[in-house]
Write a structure and sequence with these properties.
about 270 residues; mainly alpha; two-stranded antiparallel ribbon; globular
């Protein structure tokens, strides 16, 4: 009786194809289209040739809601080399929006305790500052008006984040599309950019980590977005970086010039 091969990365799975570079057996997850490089070869710098297939989230009717959500989350976070080249640029914007919205909502709700604690500590610090600086009383009065109850304030922040997330995502995708147009990274149009930006929000869950989580989430999300734009717009890394970062650089320049101008005016006024 002929024995079937087993996937080199997942021994419990039956092999369905072979890596064209190293010859290792691969399962459907490691080699979706049957002729791509295996994950090990991709990690060594191989160029994937994945066929575009719907994300697990877009196949949730087949895989199940939570399985589709988890598989997409896992692939976007820890298997970007195989995930981004396989995401169809012309897929559903609604599915991409719903995926990122669900993650944003879950993150916003789970960060309520941390926001509550931070705001409560900030209130105490402001009270101590007010005692030592009389002119801060007016500022403290405004602060207490809008945040008399730290828990309600934290819940309000979460609700606002959830409600306005789609608007922010559309604006972010629009700015990235504009940047892509300027840097020659918009061949596949707004649909592809929107899907790239939406799925690239996955690392934002790291904001749940105290202290360093916010920084990790921002950096990882930007790296993911650059990678996503590169693959889904079929462009180069420098152009993808320009498309993603141009607006942030523009704002930094504006604030920098404005700050220098204000300083010069202040010095001359003396």
């Amino acid at each position: 009786m002929q024995q079937q091969g087993q996937c080199a990365r997942h021994p419990e799975r039956v092999a369905e194809s072979v890596c064209p570079r190293c010859g290792n057996f691969t399962c459907a997850e490691c080699n979706p289209d049957g002729h791509s490089l295996c994950p090990s070869c991709l990690a060594l710098g191989g160029t994937p040739s994945l066929a575009h297939t719907p994300t697990p989230w877009e196949r949730r009717a087949e895989l199940g809601f939570f399985q589709g959500l988890f598989q997409t989350f896992k692939k976007a976070l820890i298997e970007p080399a195989t995930f981004w080249p396989s995401v169809p640029p012309n897929g559903s914007m609604g599915d991409a929006l719903l995926y990122s919205w669900l993650l944003a909502a879950a993150t916003a709700i789970l960060t309520i305790p941390m926001t509550w604690l931070n705001f409560a500590q900030m209130q105490e610090s402001m009270k101590d500052l007010t005692k030592s600086m009389g002119q801060m009383k007016e500022v403290m009065a405004i602060f207490e008006t809008f945040g008399a109850a730290p828990f309600l304030f934290a819940v309000g922040v979460a609700v606002i984040t959830i409600v306005f997330f789609p608007v922010g995502l559309v604006i972010a995708a629009g700015l990235t599309t504009l940047g892509g147009t300027m840097f020659g990274a918009n061949d596949k149009g707004f649909n592809a950019t929107f899907r790239a930006v939406a799925y690239a929000q996955t690392p934002n869950v790291f904001s749940l980590i105290p202290v360093v989580g916010g920084l990790v989430a921002v950096v990882w999300s930007l790296v993911s977005e650059v990678w996503a734009i590169k693959e889904m717009q079929q462009t180069t890394v420098p152009r993808a970086i320009g498309a993603v970062l141009w607006f942030g650089v523009f704002l930094c320049c504006c604030f920098g010039i404005g700050g220098i101008a204000a300083l010069v005016i202040a010095v001359k006024g003396r």
